[in-house]
Amino acid sequence: MDASVQSARSSRITVADLAQRSRERPRIFLAVFILTIAAFVTYTIVAKPQYRSVVKLMPREPDTPTGGLQSVLGQLGGLASLAGLSFGSVNEQEAIALLKSRALYMRFAAQKNLLPLLFSSKWDSATQRWRTDAKHTPTIEDGWLMFDKLRRVTDDPKTQLITLDVTWKNRQQAAEWANELVQLANETLRQRALQESAASIASYQDQLAHTDVVELRQAINKLMEIQLNRSAVARSRLDYALTVIDPAVVSDEKHYVSPRRFLALVIAGPLALFFAVLAVLAADSLHRVLAAVRGSR
């Protein structure tokens, strides 16, 4: 038992042991240390800056009937539900889901011809084709996977503030994409509301033609009035579902979010020391193995 404890203690490596082994192999230690520092410095110089543009939004409150119209609809709501009628509105979660959706990306990518911009290293601008030496031609799925990483949507349930940000190497494009994504989302929801209102009005008119119940006809007429009002609002309001509180602006050239050069230089020293000591330990172990092999011959 005492022998095993003594063996375990003797196999432990202390800081003093590490320092001694590093002094015994100064070339390996210095070479790895310098190479690691050089790699970090090269990264901070070569890495392209990434800029972030942010749009702050608020969801619009759905337009609801007021006054006498609301009272009438409250009284006749049961008949309206039996007829399969509804007001139709855009809520906050629907708008957020659309901003995050692949469907919105597909429309945006088609409008902006996004793939050559996302994969510019594989695109030949002279021939307007993908480079023949590229191992893989980017697909719309590749574009979605990349775009989903550089575009982020968050919301604050307490304030209902929605934040959309785009992080990209081109600061002008980052601001443009952020603002245009919101515009496209609003236009998509606006057109959807117009289509739903038109379909609802057609359905209400059909209901009117097939019922003689006075109460139900009154409910249908009131609901038609709501849909006509909703359609009018959608036609006149470009920011139909999302109100821009603070639009994205082009970041200053020095205000990039990545690479964090100062942080990289701060952690370069400890990591270089770690890799250098690790290399010394590996070289020492290899030397012992080779010595044991030679001794067994």
Question: Can you offer a commentary on this structure?
Answer:
The chain contains twelve helices and six strands. It has 297 residues and is an alpha+beta fold. The protein folds into two domains: 21-47 and 263-296; 51-246, no CATH class. A four-stranded antiparallel β-sheet has the order 4-5-1-6. The protein is elongated, with a radius of gyration of 33 Å. Residues 3-10, 64-69 and 79-89 have low confidence and may be disordered.
SSE diagram, text form:
Elements: H1 2-11, H2 15-24, H3 26-46, E1 51-59, H4 67-75, H5 77-82, H6 92-100, H7 102-112, H8 115-118, E2 123-124, E3 129-130, H9 140-150, E4 151-155, E5 162-168, H10 171-209, H11 214-236, E6 242-246, H12 261-296
Shape by Cα distribution: elongated
Residues in β-strands, percent? 5-15%
The beta-strand count equals: 6
Mean pLDDT: 81
Q: Please mark out the parts with pLDDT under 50 across 5 or more consecutive residues, or reply none.
A: 3-10, 64-69, 79-89
Major beta sheet summary: 4 strands, antiparallel
Number of helices: 12
Helix content: 55-70%
Q: Order of strands side by side in the largest beta sheet?
A: 4-5-1-6
Give the terminus-to-terminus CA distance: 33 Å
Please compute the radius of gyration using only Cα atoms.
33 Å
The assigned structural class equals alpha+beta
Topology as H/E string?
Answer: HHHEHHHHHEEHEEHHEH
Number of domains: 2
Q: Summed up, what is this model?
A:
The protein is 64% helix and 10% strand. It has 297 residues and is of the alpha+beta class.
Structure characteristics:
297 residues; alpha+beta; 2 domains; 4-stranded antiparallel β-sheet; 12 helices
